[in-house]
Specification:
Blueprint: H1 4-16, H2 19-43, H3 49-76, H4 89-124, H5 129-135, H6 146-166, H7 169-175, H8 185-189, H9 193-216, H10 243-275
Keywords: Membrane, Transmembrane, Transmembrane helix
Protein name: Glycerophosphoryl diester phosphodiesterase membrane domain-containing protein
Transmembrane segments: 48-70, 99-120, 149-174, 195-218, 243-264
């Protein structure tokens, strides 16, 4: 079995060595999602409930299409279509639902993990001591401060580790036969724990390196590029992003999804191989 660094590098290498295939998998879904974002910015209040629902559904559909397309390419050698993965609506719908359920479950676990920390603070420390150390004296979380970055990194690492431990059922769902049983992901990844931990750390670093500059880049982009609008101070007008910033966010989201799917695929391959080796 491969170590975590090798798994991570093999996942990156798999995407970078097949740029044409990766582009064909992400092109159609990316254009559809970006077009929806632009339409919402142009014709809707971006903060309206309907807009939020539409964007959320688009995100889930995007993840399902890209991830299923990549899993099936790597595990079944199934080539994608011209500008998107081959359509498998039922399988993609199940993938999207399971991805959402897993995400909610992992988020709940993360909250439960931090509850003892909060309880320790209020029971054993002066009021607000730990909270103030984490988020500042004014209780306003600044993700760009040193402590904010540390807290963000810890949360991303825990979230990613839990997700990798639980989510090997996703690539299995993408390729399994209709009557094949579901995969017990937690048990299957138990023998891969060191590799999963390392992959989670490297994925966390990659996430910060990917999204950090993207958030900082907003100040460098034209504020009014086509329809960008920043409300005046005290105004309740909805904040509208520029086309350039929406395109940048779509690029980052696309890279995160395709590389995340690649890591899951490589972990799945090792987990299936490990399951065939007697423990001892």
């Amino acid at each position: 079995m491969r170590n975590g660094l090798t798994v991570f590098l093999d996942a990156l290498r798999a995407v970078l060595s097949a740029p044409g295939t990766a582009l064909r998998i992400v092109a159609g879904p990316s254009l559809v999602r970006l077009a929806l974002e632009v339409l919402i910015e142009l014709g809707f209040n971006p903060e309206a409930p309907l807009a939020t629902v539409l964007v959320t559904l688009a995100d889930v559909l995007f993840v399902a299409m890209v991830a299923v397309g990549w899993h099936r390419f790597r595990l079944l050698d199934e080539a994608p279509g011209l500008i998107g993965p081959r359509p498998t609506p039922g399988r993609m719908a199940k993938y999207g639902v399971e991805w959402v359920v897993l995400g909610i479950f992992v988020a709940i676990l993360l909250v439960l993990i931090f509850l003892p920390v909060i309880a320790f603070e209020y029971c054993c420390l002066p009021a607000g001591t730990l909270t103030r150390w984490l988020v500042g004296q004014e209780f306003v979380f600044d993700q760009f401060s040193v402590t904010g970055l540390l807290v963000s990194a810890l949360c991303i690492w825990l979230l990613t580790w839990l997700f990798f431990r639980l989510a090997l059922s996703l690539p299995h769902l993408a390729v399994r036969a209709p009557r094949e049983k579901r995969l017990a992901s937690w048990a299957l990844t138990a023998r891969l724990e060191p590799a999963v931990l390392v992959c989670a750390v490297l994925a966390m670093i990659g996430t910060l390196l990917l999204w950090g500059p993207a958030f900082w880049a907003y100040d460098l982009l034209p504020e009014t590029w086509i329809f960008g609008h920043i409300p005046s101070e005290g105004s309740y007008d909805p904040y509208r992003y520029s086309v350039g910033y929406l395109a940048l966010i779509q690029l980052c989201f696309t890279l995160q999804v395709i590389f995340g799917a690649a890591i899951l695929t490589e972990l799945y391959r090792d987990a299936k191989a490990a399951a065939e080796i007697p423990a001892g």
